[in-house]
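ARCHIVE CARD
CATEGORY: sequence design from structure
SOURCE FIELD: tokenized fold
FIELD CONTENT:
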């Protein structure tokens, strides 16, 4: 991937007409690959033109178009928002033309997980208090807080804790549109996630997202470790808290019997995310995660790529790896849906990148997307799912979601993820109970500054010449260690209580 690297810059592909600064470069610096002094300072992670680029001509990074020059650009000039825009770009989806099987593995690997009655395997052993509506959110928290004070929970190290899953919707919405169906899938998916040993569903009683509908349209959980109640029917806050604690105490007796046992990697489902991206994301952490993803898929596991607004302009790299035209067309359909969705609200897909992304060196959504797609490695694209749909196909898959990280992760967990891995260049902090989250830093400077939050430094790919293959193997081994019980930095810090964010669609009434 790295075509050429000097102490000061990196060129990612022979066809690129820009290089990436690996350090803050002062005005007047002479780069060997350009031969002329820089006209102005260029921050680390940002782009420098290696040859003149005419007005309207394409700017190339990764060997791909990342936009068009909005003014003539000289060799040695900083290339960013002041002179680079989206431009017009045609996409050749070429379904399946880059489909290549992964090399076979010669070793069978396992992790130690909690085997559930439905055949899934958890990487953690939590009890959950799930809410149907915002109106029962405080009571769910009261129940969890009361449980945390109980001896039966403190004395049971086999139970990782009680997690209240609260949100801001469930009422004031239509009971039959896409938004309702999406929330329904999300709540049902959390109830079934294998990292929960048991679930208590708490509703208010008069909401649109009715508890009887949730439990009546399909079994919320196949192993019987599921109970439900409404505050109105139970008799108010105090009685509901008392009854909730009693129910969870009963569930804990069974959950405490669970022990970690060996499981094949076909039981690992990993949601992949990037947030607070920078100019290094597509050079270090994302492609290294792609290498780790390929390793897991080769061992029979499943990885999920998401954040549709952040693959925009790079979706052709996925359609070309689709196992069938039908699967590839599902990606295209989701892209068209998003173009319509954002258009209806007066937005556009290039509203992304964020201000932080741009400060880190990313200019257009095309550039950001090309780096983001690298998380998916090279494995065949096996299937495409809507937000929070159950993942039933193993391998590398795609789940539609917004680019907003907590929302996207919420969908992945509802789809069945039992581990999350998150790359960041600016320094995102978060966690996602009941699922552990591994944090990968794209650059060593941020890792040193925020080492208490980051699990792996991927900046050594450029700082020390560590190969993507080596770093991918390191990440893969952390997958297995974390799935077997090793705690992540975000778990040690207590994250995960505020990051359940269902995707809210439609009118609020």
């Amino acid at each position: 991937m790295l075509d050429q690297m000097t102490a000061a810059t990196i060129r990612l592909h022979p066809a690129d007409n820009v290089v990436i600064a690996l350090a803050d470069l002062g005005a007047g610096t002479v780069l060997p690959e350009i031969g002329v002094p820089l006209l102005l300072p260029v921050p680390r992670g940002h782009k420098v033109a290696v040859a003149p680029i005419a007005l309207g001509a394409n700017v190339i990074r990764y060997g791909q178009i990342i936009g068009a020059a909005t003014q003539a650009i000289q060799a040695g000039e900083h290339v960013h928002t002041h002179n680079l825009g989206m431009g017009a770009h045609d996409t050749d989806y070429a379904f399946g033309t880059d489909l290549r099987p992964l090399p076979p593995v010669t070793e069978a690997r396992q992790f130690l997980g909690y085997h559930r009655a439905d055949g899934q395997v958890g990487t953690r052993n939590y009890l959950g208090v799930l809410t149907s509506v915002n109106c029962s959110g405080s009571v769910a928290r009261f129940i969890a807080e009361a449980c945390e004070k109980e001896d039966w929970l403190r004395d049971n190290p086999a139970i990782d804790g009680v997690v209240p899953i609260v949100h801001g919707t469930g009422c004031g919405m239509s009971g039959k549109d896409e938004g309702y169906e999406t929330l329904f899938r999300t709540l049902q998916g959390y109830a079934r996630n294998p990292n929960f040993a048991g679930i208590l569903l708490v509703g208010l009683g008069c909401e649109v997202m009715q508890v009887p509908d949730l439990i009546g349209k399909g079994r919320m959980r196949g192993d019987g470790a599921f109970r439900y109640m409404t505050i109105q029917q139970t008799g108010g806050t105090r009685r509901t808290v008392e009854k909730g604690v009693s129910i969870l105490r009963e569930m804990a007796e069974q959950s405490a019997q669970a022990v970690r046992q060996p499981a094949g990697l076909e039981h690992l489902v990993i949601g992949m995310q990037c947030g607070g991206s920078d100019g290094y994301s597509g050079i270090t952490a994302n492609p290294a995660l792609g290498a780790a993803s390929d390793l897991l898929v080769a061992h029979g596991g499943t990885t999920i790529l998401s954040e549709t607004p952040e693959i925009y302009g790079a979706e052709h790299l996925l359609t070309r790896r689709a196992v069938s035209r039908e699967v590839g067309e599902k990606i295209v359909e989701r892209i068209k849906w998003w173009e319509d969705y954002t258009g209806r609200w007066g937005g556009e897909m290039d509203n992304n990148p964020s201000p932080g992304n741009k400060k880190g060196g990313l200019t257009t959504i095309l550039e950001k997307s090309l780096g983001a797609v690298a998380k998916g490695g090279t494995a065949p694209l096996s299937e495409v799912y809507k937000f929070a749909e159950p993942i039933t196909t193993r391998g590398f898959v795609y789940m539609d979601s917004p680019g907003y990280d907590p929302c996207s992760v919420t969908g992945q967990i509802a789809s069945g993820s039992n581990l999350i891995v998150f790359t960041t260049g600016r320094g995102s902090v978060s966690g996602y109970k009941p699922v552990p989250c591994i944090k990968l830093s794209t650059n060593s400077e941020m890792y040193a500054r925020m080492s208490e939050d980051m699990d792996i430094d991927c900046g050594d790919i450029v700082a020390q010449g560590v190969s993507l293959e080596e770093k991918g193997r390191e990440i893969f081994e952390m997958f297995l260690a974390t799935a077997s019980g090793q705690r992540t930095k975000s778990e040690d810090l207590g994250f995960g209580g505020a990051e359940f964010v269902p995707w809210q669609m439609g009118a609020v009434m």
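CARD ANNOTATION: The longest strand covers residues 196-203. The mean pLDDT is 94.
SHELF: design records, drawer C
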